[in-house]
Amino acid sequence: MEMMNTDDDSLCEDSGNETSGDDVDFNVEVETSVPKESQSYDDEYQYEVLSTSDIVQYMSDIIDEVNSVLQLPPTTARILLNYFHWDKEKLMERFFDGDQDELFKEANVINPFKKIPVTGKPKLSLKIRGTEECDICFMVFAPSHMTGLECGHRFCYQCWNEYLTTKIVEEGVGQTIACAAHNCPILVDDETVMRLVKDTRVKIKYQHLITNSFIECNRLLRWCPSPDCNYAVKVAYVDFKPVVCCCGHIFCFACGENWHDPVKCSLLKKWIKKCDDDSETSNWISANTKECPKCGATIEKDGGCNHMVCKNQNCKADFCWVCLGSWEPHGSSWYNCNKYDEDEAKAARDAQERSRAALQRYLFYCNRYMNHMQSLKFEHKLYSSVKDKMEEMQQHNMSWIEVQFLKKAVDILCKCRQTLMYTYVFAYYLKKNNQSVIFEDNQKDLERTTELLSEYLERDITQENLVDIKQKVQDKYRYCDGRRKALLDHVHEGYEQDWWVCKEA
Amino acid sequence: MANIAAQRIRREFKEVIKSEEVAKCAIKVELLNDSYTELKGEITGPPDTAYEGGVFVLEIKVPETYPFNPPKVRFITKIWHPNISSVTGAICLDILKDQWAAAMTLRTVLLSLQALLSAAEPDDPQDAVVAKQFKENIEMFQMTARHWTNVYAGGPHVNKECDDKIKRLVDMGVEEHQARVALSSYNWDIERATEQIFS
Ligand SMILES: [Zn+2]
Ligand SMILES: [Zn+2]
Ligand SMILES: [Zn+2]
Ligand SMILES: [Zn+2]
Ligand SMILES: [Zn+2]
Ligand SMILES: [Zn+2]
């Protein structure tokens, strides 16, 4: 979900001070409950949004830090860090406690402290003295046109460029490109790659590959999940908290999903898996079918007659759609089931009922969840209709700042929808107790006020007198946001007090 | 064709021509077109193996991105070997896949293939039927491979018994190669081979 840029909200709130007296309490509450948008929902949770070049810088800072102790060439340090998934402590520990030769060998880098003799001697051309032959293109060059790694395998610049480009572009290899010689495991360091690759696009791809492996093995970093967004978010500790990317996308740092308060990551994950599950979808379709009480085949009622004949050709059981008992005792009263309480029929019904009830329950929550998700998508259209309204109002002597409340109203509406959506996931896994009843009341309240706000912004607003609109809209969205906050506070309190008992569903 | 690739093949071609293996008639490369994209390779069966005395022809296709990607090589001569398909001639060899290195050459490829004929890798098979026979009945495998070498690669070891069994199936109207494949796959059990052909 993409939020509109709302940097001007503080201005909007300031200009909202001329509201009438009885609104003051609300106003104060709203001031504190609505944070400065797109910066943070939660002031205590510190994070930074990093661009690709910030990440590159961050990586080299870590390398410098490690090197202040280890005193390695930076390129070697980078290869070692990558080998230890950027865990500095682990690297230091291995470096000082273990066999260093073994460590360098494992990480496929030459031990910089040991000047071992070059393994592959430069292949001197027999034809012309003072020249070398490249083992890839077989051409003869002056030594200054040849280059290689510490392993001693040398190739010409053109071949290096081609070789690295093939690895990066075709095979998508970043940090772990090995020397071009056969059976030589020594890794090509990043500086060498950047020096030898000519094409800028290939360089960019390479940088992305190496930052990607860095981000993926660092728990405190996460790419913004928004498509085509190249920012990453860095935190001090992993938590179930919302972070706002520079692109405007708001997501949960712990799991990367859209911000999903009040439901916790693990349950949301479970829920999404459940929704994606094919068997659930097929259950959905079968909501208006029943299973044959004898063989279990799925039967659809195709007409008004309650006398069902199983479609399974090996079963062909006759049964009653209403009671699920066998058809025989229904006899001549075929038009009317009067066997509802017979034992056999009751047992069959109970078994079916239990699985149906679970399905019905799932469908109930799923429908509401989907419904808010759908509405949330539609609300984005509201932004454009509201924009027209804002222009109209500006033509009636209202300033640009004064009309921002309308956009703010849609922002709040979207937030409420999103919260509501996830309350249904929370509720689905919630066991009933006194607190869950309060939660459901809060949910009902928020749902009602959200629908009112939505309806007002979508329809009623067109008929209102321009002067009244501002007051009414502000009252409504403040009330709505207040309900949202009350619901979330109650859930958060419950997390702290251990009120919530999870249902195994 | 890319500059490096053409340059390389031209040079490699010369390298093979003047190599000592050619002098010993062990490997050979021929150009099939002027653009160096298709070549014909030849290797002789290594001594003291079932392939001894045979000459095996290879199809070599050089990709645009050579030598940064390996050449595509397959056997044209039919061969009975766990790592080479008896049907298509496709080869299962690491250096022709992920273990390829830009500094390797056609010469190293041909020598590696020759080495593969001396030392099969039945645990990484290309032809499951052959690999099974190799592991379960090595003598039967040797005999079959030698027979194939004789028939398809000009090897010296004529096996009268095999030829007779094939003739019996051919007399029944079975195509000769099909008869040889069936008999080879069923350890030269003529009844089971017949059953398989006519089932
Ligand atoms: Zn070169
Ligand atoms: Zn090397
Ligand atoms: Zn983003
Ligand atoms: Zn989460
Ligand atoms: Zn049935
Ligand atoms: Zn009934």
Write the layout of secondary structure elements.
The complex is a heterodimer of chains A (505) and B (199).
Chain A: H1 9-15, H2 24-33, E1 47-50, H3 52-70, H4 74-83, H5 88-97, H6 100-106, E2 132-133, E3 140-141, E4 146-148, E5 154-156, H7 157-170, H8 190-196, H9 200-216, E6 221-223, E7 232-235, E8 242-244, E9 250-252, H10 265-276, H11 278-285, E10 289-291, E11 298-300, E12 307-309, E13 318-320, H12 343-395, H13 405-428, H14 434-458, H15 466-497
Antiparallel strand pairs in A: 1-7, 2-3, 4-5, 6-7, 8-9, 10-11, 12-13
Chain B: H1 3-17, H2 20-23, E1 27-31, E2 38-44, E3 55-61, E4 72-75, H3 106-118, H4 128-136, H5 138-153, H6 160-171, H7 176-185, H8 190-198
Bound molecules: zinc ion (6 copies).
General description of the model:
The complex is a heterodimer of chains A (505) and B (199). Helix content of chain A is 50%, strand content 8%. By secondary structure, chain A is mainly alpha-helical. Chain A has a three-stranded antiparallel β-sheet with strand order 1-7-6. In chain A, helix 2 (24-33) packs across helix 15, helix 3 (52-70) crosses helix 4 (74-83) and helix 12 packs antiparallel against helix 13. Mean pLDDT of chain A is 80; it is low at 1-40. With 199 residues, chain B is an alpha+beta fold. Chain B has two domains: 2-118, Roll (Ubiquitin Conjugating Enzyme); 128-198, no CATH class. Helix content of chain B is 44%, strand content 12%. Chain B has helices spanning 3-17, 20-23, 106-118, 128-136, 138-153, 160-171, 176-185, 190-198, and strands spanning 27-31, 38-44, 55-61, 72-75. Chain B starts with a helix and ends with a helix. Chain A binds chain B through residues 135-139, 153, 155, 158-159, 162-163, 166, 170, 180-184, and chain B through 4, 7-8, 11-12, 65, 67-69, 101-104, 108. The complex binds zinc ion (6 copies). One zinc ion (ZN) is lined by residues 224, 226, 229, 231, 245, 247, 249 of chain A. The site of one zinc ion has 8 residues of chain A, from strand 5 and helix 7.
